[in-house]
Specification:
Helix content: 25-40%
Mean pLDDT: 87
Structural class: alpha/beta
Number of helices: 3
Low-confidence stretches: none
Strand content: 15-25%
Largest sheet: 3 strands, parallel
Distance between the termini: 23 Å
Length: about 110
């Protein structure tokens, strides 16, 4: 089983218990999303024989991203890797970021 973990280093606020790299500023969010897409492309040779079964967005707080940002990253994975027909895709979320409308859009 192969999976891809994508670290989203943005949070609304700093939590005292967190040891992960993060930023509370979204000024460079678009730049970072494009850099992540580029890295996904550049690293495709590392998984030539693997089939991706899971795509996991962790962080930070991935639910801070727009659905279009997540779609770009998922599409980039599909364009560069062999992905099973129905992979598990997980997005860590802050409950404050979720509404019924947002959950439907993420689905």
């Amino acid at each position: 089983m192969s999976g891809i973990y994508i670290h989203i280093p943005f949070c609304k606020q700093a939590c005292h218990y967190c040891d992960f790299h993060f930023s509370t500023s979204l000024k460079k969010k678009d730049e970072m999303v494009l850099a992540l897409a580029k890295e996904i492309q550049l690293r495709k040779g590392e998984f030539k024989e693997e089939i991706v079964e899971t795509i996991y967005f962790g962080g930070g707080t991935p639910s801070i991203l727009e659905v279009s940002d997540l779609k770009l990253l998922i599409d980039t994975v599909y364009e560069n890797y062999d992905v099973i027909e129905n992979p598990e895709i997980t997005v860590e979320a802050n409950p404050d970021d979720l509404t019924e409308e947002r959950i439907i859009a993420l689905a």
